[in-house]
Amino acid sequence: MFPSPNHGDRRGHAPSLVVLHFTQMRDAAAARARLCDPAAQVSAHWLIAEDGTTEQLVCETRRAWHAGAGRWQGHDDINSRSIGIELANPGDRPFPAPQMTALRRLLRAIMTRWTIPPTNVIAHSDMAPGRKIDPGPRLDWEGLSRDDLALFARPDPSDPAPPLPASLDALGYPDDPARLQAFRLRHRPWATGPETDADRRTAARLLRCANTPGGSRLRDGGGAPS
Ligand SMILES: [Zn+2]
């Protein structure tokens, strides 16, 4: 038995996505209390504390209540299709190394258990643009991609820059006016202002990575890992 009562039936779906969150609370203990409070009506399958302590709050075969309204790859009801991981972080600071080590270990186990590819490890902000900003601009997606645990890409200036909407559609982003911001939050968090060729190149390269087996490692021109 796991400590959170906040879960339900998966409605016929098996987990095919992992959604990463930050808790936006003072510390892991406060987050744990809320994620296990029946009155709060929220939960996640896993909570990783700042020091890397990893606790399962909901059985992975059950539908935890972490994602809320949103879409990814044309699907709604993301809760039924996903496993949610909460990283204890108030939202205004880096993720400590022991926490990232624990995240990598947990992702590896979940992705093996449910045969989930790196392309299907997403940010809460990816599926709920404009509504959610977590896990925020400080999460090291590039580091995760180096371990084949998520998708990240740095384009070459010589890469083609096809229209952004088609790339974002194909990557899975919902049709939402805030999706450029959501895309940047994860892939180009320093970018501001109107859409640029760098956005278009990054999205196109991500798409090529997504469509290449082992492609989460494709970067810097597709050469050998540095
Ligand atoms: Zn979240």
Brief overview, please?
31% of the residues lie in helices and 11% in strands. With 226 residues, the protein is α/β, with parallel strands linked by helices. Strands 4-3-6-2-7 form a five-stranded mixed sheet, with helices on both faces. A two-stranded antiparallel ribbon has the order 1-5.
Spell out which ligands are present. zinc ion
Helix amount, in percent?
A: 25-40%
Quickly count the helices. 8
Distance between the termini: 43 Å
Task: Supply the CATH class.
Answer: Alpha Beta
Description:
There is one protein chain. This protein has 226 residues and is of the alpha/beta class. It is built from 8 helices and 7 strands; from the N terminus they run E-E-H-E-E-E-H-E-H-E-H-H-H-H-H. A 5-stranded mixed sheet has the order 4-3-6-2-7, sandwiched between helices. A hairpin with a 5-residue loop joins strand 3 and strand 4 (54-56). The model is unreliable at 218-226 (pLDDT under 50). Zinc ion is lined by residues 21, 124, 132, 134. Zinc ion binds at residues 21, 124, 132, 134.
